[in-house]
Write a structure and sequence with these properties.
Number of strands: 6
Number of domains: 1
CATH superfamily: STAS domain
Shape: globular
CATH architecture: 2-Layer Sandwich
Helix content: 25-40%
Strand content: 25-35%
CATH topology: Transcription Regulator spoIIAA
Order of helices and strands: EEHEEHEHEH
Number of helices: 4
Structural class: alpha/beta
Distance between the termini: 33 Å
Largest sheet: 6 strands, mixed
Length: 125
């Protein structure tokens, strides 16, 4: 996993990982999501549009980051457009926990994308 330099956008930490989120990259992902200043990391947007693969380790880091954010009154929101990510979240029962946001601005504002707009097949349908 590579990352572009995290940024602050209107009070939100924006992280943009690139490549695979797996056991080999879990620690780097954790550090990017956490940041150096807990106060600045309460609201985090993870832009996953350049992520090519997520395994259970990557998913676990996203869930842990969400728990950390919520513990201090914040949130973690995911921007993604890959069918594989939406399918992974559906199959693991986490699609409600991690609704899809179309872009960083929508995530920051809390405006999730309409269900089914990524083109991912729905489970059981």
């Amino acid at each position: 996993m590579n990352t572009r330099c995290p940024e602050q956008k209107e009070g939100c930490r924006v992280v943009r990982p690139v490549g695979e989120l797996d056991l080999a990259t879990a620690k780097a992902l954790r550090e990017e999501l956490r940041g150096n200043d807990a106060a600045l990391s309460a609201c985090v947007v993870a832009d996953l549009r350049r992520v090519t693969f997520i395994d259970s380790s990557g998913l676990q880091e996203l869930r842990a980051a969400q728990a950390r954010c919520e513990a201090v009154g914040g949130w973690l929101r995911l921007v993604y457009d890959h069918r594989s990510i939406e399918l992974l979240l559906q199959l693991t029962g986490l699609v409600q926990q991690f609704p899809r946001y179309a872009d960083v601005d929508d995530a920051r504002r809390g405006n999730p994308a309409l269900p089914g707009t990524s083109g991912a097949p729905s489970v059981g349908g």
